[in-house]
Amino acid sequence: MSGNHKLKKVKMFDGPNELPELPDCVISYILTKLSMKELLKTSILSKSWYKLWTLRRDLYFDIFNVFENTEEELLQKGYLIDVPYTYCSAMERMLTSDTSDLFVNRVDQFLKHSNATTIDSFLVKFYLGSQQQTSIDQWISFVIKRGIQTIDLLFSGLSLPYSLCCCLRNPCQFPFHLFLETTPSTLKRLRLQYCLVFHPTDYNFTSFKNLSFLSLDTVKGDEFFIETLLSNCKQLEELHLIKCNFESPILKIVSSSLCHLKVTTCFPPFSDFWEEVNLTLLDCLKLTSLEYCGRRLGNMNFNTPMLNNIRLAVIYSEEHLNAFGLLATLPKLEILQLDIYSMVPTSVKLTQRLQHLKELNLILHLPYVTPQKLDFDLSRILTILQACPLLQKLSVMLTYPETMENQQVASDVEVFSHDEVKVIELRGCVGNWYEIEFAMNFMKYANKLEQIVLSPYWKDDESLDWSSKLAWFQSGRQRISEKFQSEDVVGREKLVLI
After folding, report:
1. Is 159 helix (H, G, I), strand (E, B) or coil?
2. Is pTM, for the whole model, over 0.85?
3. Which of 46, 43, 41 is closest to 17 using CA atoms?
């Protein structure tokens, strides 16, 4: 060994009172990965670690790390009850009278003994409401004084992995007044679920000057809240409004900083399913992506010259296809996803050209009717291809697909050619005639096609897992293979069956 390289003697851990010294960043990372129970156990590792747990800068409180049990153990102890959807009141009594009080007490005790001078993130994921408002206010005050950057208050049981429903009858109110007007907060990310966000009196949100991300999920707010917040949060780049309840049926988004916007299924008070809050004005010069679930997109006033990625959902009738005329005016639109419902897919025909579109994702939600009575022809989607001359990728997904009996071959489609599309994907494919014709027509008219993928897998918005039909593996795959072998199909080597 060269004399320039000397071995350093490393001191090994040789007892409970002695631990190797670690950098603060490593210790902080270790503490973040531990549950509350595991965190408290670190105090017995060594004298130097006796109160190290109190310095944890990322605080996460949910039902599992607060009660330190598995879901099965929580059910056995009575902290949880597994009930059908209709028994909301029983679940609510259990959580509010027993479990919620114990949860709050344990969080209180943890914060009481915390010696952390800085808190980076604070998350509470548990069913809490107005009964716990005082404690929630104290928690927020605690983290504000310690320079909090991220707050997640998820006061719903819906995200927990067991069969419960959340009946939020008495939501708590987010304490905006605790953020002093004269002292800009360090808060950068705020996510609220199941609470009230009414505009405080004589408060204009200027203390939120550093806020860059805001997500409101199933919250209730007044008509001035969003308008005032956007006008004063000059660093806000991303805004999510999900299933919110606003007093006004009209929503206007005006921001000089917003880059990403998501507005899905918001309603005015005491409305039915058909009375959504409508986004009528979108004046955001820096906006690049938009996800919108609404029914009157054609009436929206756009001032978004940088917008290049859009997802539109809940298209119930052909009149909503008029929105394509509006999309055609966007000079940088390159990625578009459409969630199409009802019978619209059978007659989609675009008169407006989407000149810059490069990627199109279609999710076709098939109606709940007998498949044999469904007049469905995927080849009509080819008309969309004709309206997108620069399209390079087309992805189509059929939700809840069914195999049709006594299938008939579709009629020929209008002859055309496309010189840019390279990849075609069809998910939810189970071997129906319209799926086979869909693939054959694309092979015939897409001159630069490199690959066409047929897959049985599909999923809906509420699921993270992919579903599939056994019919594909039993007969659908064989039917497609036989059809392509028996026909003189040019380019069938591009076909990929998953």
Report:
1. coil
2. no
3. 46
pLDDT tops 80 at residue 420: yes
Percentages helix, strand, coil for the chain, rounded to the nearest 5? 30, 20, 50
Structural contact between residues 222 and 244, judged by C-beta atoms closer than 8 angstroms: no
Strand partners, 254: 283
Burial class (CB in 10 A: 0-12, 13-18, 19+), 1: exposed
Round to whole Å and give the CA distance between 426 and 300.
31
> Can you spell out the DSSP letters for 394-431?
EEEEEES--PPSS--PPPPPPP--BSS--EEEEES---
What DSSP character marks residue 363?
E
d(CA 31, CA 28): 5
CA distances for 346 relative to 359, 381, 382, angstroms? 21, 8, 11
First to last CA, the chain: 56
What CA–CA distance (Å, rounded) separates 118 from 141? Answer: 13
CA–CA dist 285, 304 (Å, integer): 5
Q: How many whole angstroms separate alpha carbon 363 and alpha carbon 425?
A: 11
The answer to whether residues 290 and 283 touch, using CB atoms and an 8 Å cutoff, is no
Can you tell me which residue has the tokens 């505009």? 199
Distance separating alpha carbons of residues 121 and 108, to the nearest angstrom: 17
In tens, the pLDDT along 322-375 reads 667 778 888 899 999 988 775 544 455 566 788 899 999 988 876 655 444 445
Q: DSSP state, 473?
A: I
DSSP track, 316-343: -SGGGGGHHHHHTT-TT--EEEEEE-TT
Question: How large is the angle between the packed helices 433-445 and 477-486, nearest 10 degrees?
Answer: 40
- Rounded CA-CA distance 130/147 in Å is 26
